[in-house]
What does this fold into?
Amino acid sequence: MKFTKETIIACLLATIACACAITAQTISTTATDASANANARSADTPVSAAPKVGDAAPDFRLPYATQEKIYLKPEEQMALSALRGKTVVLAFYPADWSGGCTKEVCTLRDTFAELSKLNATVLGLSGDYVFSHHEWAKHHKLQFPLLSDHDHRVARMYGSFDEASGYNRRSIFVIDRNGMVRYSNLQFKAGDAGDYNRLRAELEKLK
It folds into this structure.
């Protein structure tokens, strides 16, 4: 059987196209597997030592933002020790604008009046810059400040930083009027009503 020049070229092009498709599929599968493995490593990464219930809460000072203003100067920054005499809810979360974190802060926003009646001062905390915090707080009309822990120093102090992913773990601490840790949840879930109910129950005890 004789093959024309055109037939040979067509066969070669078809072979190349098939090889490209297989390569693309392999790359896609590899990327998906790598992403899944990264997520698995993130989930399995041990939490470093976090303050336990009954421990003194590690003090810190950080810049922060509200929907109205950015507080960046050293004399304007938020110090945990300055909130002595108040019950503090310290909410570590991975990142502004992400789906789970938006759900979490909006749930805290929607229950803010109830939390305030329980004498709770809510502080959100992630590695985002204050400029992102300010825009995010404005966008969602958040009533509580968002602290910027850009080098994750404070998150590490509270055992709430995941070295593998480079983001904060979603975790909650309740700190009493004397600066002592009274409750912690290092696996807080943004969409779990039970976690919010447990938080409110702990605040009820401190009211």
The mean pLDDT is 84. The radius of gyration is 24 Å. Residues 61-206 form a domain with the Glutaredoxin fold (CATH 3.40.30.10).
